[in-house]
Amino acid sequence: MKKIIAVSVLVIVFVLFSGCVSNPVVRESAQGALHSHYEYSEGWSPTQGCYERVTGYVYNAGEVSFDAVQLNLNLVNSGTSSIRDSKSIFVGTVGAGETRTWETILDGECTQDYRVDFIFTK
To answer: Which fold has domain 20-121?
Structure first.
């Protein structure tokens, strides 16, 4: 009897939180020779709740290095256009032909639909 109750509770939990996990969304951005590729997807964990995991890379296709490259990410509610969470990531110097990878987590709510807006400065 205890096994049936435990399995039933697990099934209910998985069904309730199944909406938090989605396919990754992929985006590209460029400013001159500096290019960025990133993707984000929803996730859920017992310690963090619902979140957006964002990973990507910055690539310098030019022949000169860029100093002080910084990424600015906003988790935006798709329905209200309000910003739920923001992060700035300092990448630093990106040399000619160099690629730098990065990763971060943006905090969301399980009942909302979000998109990630991205800008980078050099």
So the answer is: Immunoglobulin-like (2.60.40)
pLDDT in tens, 5-14: 655 555 555 5
Helix, coil or strand: residue 32: coil
* Segments making up each domain of the chain, as ranges: 20-121
CA gap 89, 120 in Å, rounded = 9
Across 1-122, the runs of DSSP E, i.e. the strands, are 25-31, 34-45, 49-60, 66-77, 83-94, 99-107, 114-121
Nearest to 108 by CA among 71, 72, 82, 69: 82
Report helix, strand or coil for 97. Answer: coil
Place of tokens 């600015």: 72
* pTM for the predicted model, two decimal places: 0.75
